[in-house]
């Protein structure tokens, strides 16, 4: 089966997570992704948090599947020459170096555009060009703080909190992938490449859109009725942290199930969707609440929402999180068990769908990774192992027209 991105050649000048997540996705969908790495060390994640001595760390293997690895010192003239050849015949260059690093290497946007006017140059930076912080290097948690996620996550009586989800890194990579695909379609129409830039701050803020909604509502009316602070608590002039409250019109909370005293994940998320009030009352054995004016409407329920959650928790006390969801799903109530990484890794449905996949690796044996979360009717993205450092150097150089002697000479001068 041919894959939609077959024939698209990508120079993957990325490291750590944001850039690699983007190029990995494009590689799954068929692009020829050549990861350019520093000889001797490569992407820093090859060595970070290793669990097997002398084998690439999972941090690297889980973000660089389906790629080739070319080692090249792009600060040396011989390395620059190879890179220039590669640029001339590639469709996309993706990078997420610190601000100015590519320019210092001699590959500014103008120079890249001169070498290959059809090439798309895609960059991740912490902040957008021209932003007053655009000189800063940025990692995940920095972006979560700068993009509004941290100030709005956590409990009102605790500090700003970081999410475990990679809102700054992988999320930015996904935004960049959309930008690259858009620029490729644009190029089909104009014949020209362009620069695509995504900042981590902007990508986090894009996911915090509803919090900007709340800021404006707060400024207009002085309170936010779906937050636990309403109606008894205080609001200041900024969106507060709402704990586990639902972000839309349906109140929700994380509720204890059987075993919570010893199992930190014996919880479900329970949503009180307006039209599900009747089934909820029936499920809880509280039919008298269905038409009680103190409970009947969302507005009436809000002042005593925690009393309602308390009643639901009492009902949950003798049910495991899985038993509870099996009952509630019959009543069309939006809910889910709080799942651990162990449960997800072993989930038969995720294995069957290809969302959790086991990948054989030359040095590690097999490892688990998250496969494509995007499913297609005509293509099943196959996940292959991440490359060893420099595994494809000879192959890529030969493809660029270098003879065996040239390749040997390049190795001798340590440019590759
Ligand atoms: N050959 C020779 N030199 C190479 C090379 C190669 N193949 N690949 C990279 N380099 C050099 C670069 O030219 C640069 O050198 P310079 O600083 O002397 O100009 C250096 O390696 C890389 O610098 P930098 O990207 O700043 O690395 P860092 O480890 O100091 O910072 C980050 C890491 C992630 C903080 C930084 O890259 C960054 O802010 N990136 C943008 C935001 C981002 O993507 N962050 C999230 C990562 S998940």
From TrEMBL:
Keyword Transferase: yes
Pfam families in the cross-refs: CoA_transf_3
Catalytic activity: formyl-CoA + oxalate = oxalyl-CoA + formate
Entry's Gene Ontology molecular function annotations: formyl-CoA transferase activity
Enzyme active site: 169
EC number of this enzyme: 2.8.3.16
UniProt keyword annotations, A-Z: Transferase
Subunit structure: Homodimer.
This protein's name: Formyl-CoA:oxalate CoA-transferase
Annotated source species: Paraburkholderia sediminicola
């Amino acid at each position: 089966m041919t894959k939609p991105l077959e024939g698209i050649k990508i120079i993957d000048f990325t490291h750590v997570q944001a850039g690699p997540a983007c190029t990995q996705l494009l590689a799954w969908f068929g692009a020829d992704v050549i990861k350019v790495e520093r000889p001797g060390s490569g992407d820093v994640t090859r060595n970070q948090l290793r669990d097997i001595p002398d084998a690439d760390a999972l941090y690297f293997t889980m973000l660089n599947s389906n790629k080739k690895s070319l080692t090249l010192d792009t600060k040396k003239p011989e390395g620059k020459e190879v890179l220039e050849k590669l640029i001339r015949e590639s469709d996309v260059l993706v990078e997420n170096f610190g601000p100015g690093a590519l320019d210092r290497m001699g590959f500014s946007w103008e120079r890249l555009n001169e070498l290959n006017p059809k090439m798309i140059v895609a960059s991740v930076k912490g902040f957008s060009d021209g932003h007053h912080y655009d000189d800063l290097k940025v990692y995940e948690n920095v972006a979560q703080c700068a993009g509004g996620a941290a100030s709005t996550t956590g409990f009102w009586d605790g500090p700003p909190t970081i999410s475990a989800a990679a809102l700054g890194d992988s999320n930015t990579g996904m935004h960049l992938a959309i930008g690259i695909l858009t620029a490729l379609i644009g190029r089909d129409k104009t014949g020209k490449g362009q620069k695509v830039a995504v900042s981590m701050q902007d990508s986090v803020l894009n996911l915090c859109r509803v919090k900007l909604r709340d800021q404006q509502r707060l400024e207009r009316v002085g309170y936010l009725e779906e937050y636990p602070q309403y109606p008894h608590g205080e609001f200041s002039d900024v969106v507060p942290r709402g704990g586990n409250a639902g972000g839309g019109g349906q109140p929700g909370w994380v509720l204890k199930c059987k075993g919570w005293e010893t199992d930190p994940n014996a919880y479900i998320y329970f949503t009180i969707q307006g039209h599900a009030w009747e089934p909820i009352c029936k499920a809880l054995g509280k039919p008298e609440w269905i038409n009680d004016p103190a409970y009947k409407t969302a507005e009436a329920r809000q002042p005593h929402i925690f009393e309602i959650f308390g009643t639901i928790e009492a009902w949950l006390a003798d049910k495991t999180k899985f038993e509870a969801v099996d009952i509630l799903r019959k009543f069309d109530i939006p809910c889910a068990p709080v799942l651990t990484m162990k449960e997800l890794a072993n989930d038969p449905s995720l294995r069957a769908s290809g969302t959790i996949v086991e990948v054989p690796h030359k040095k590690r044996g097999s490892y688990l990774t998250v496969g494509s979360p995007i499913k297609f009717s005509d293509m099943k993205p196959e996940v292959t192992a991440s490359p060893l450092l420099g595994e494809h150097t000879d192959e890529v150089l030969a493809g660029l027209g270098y003879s065996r002697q040239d390749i040997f000479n390049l190795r001798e001068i340590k440019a590759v």
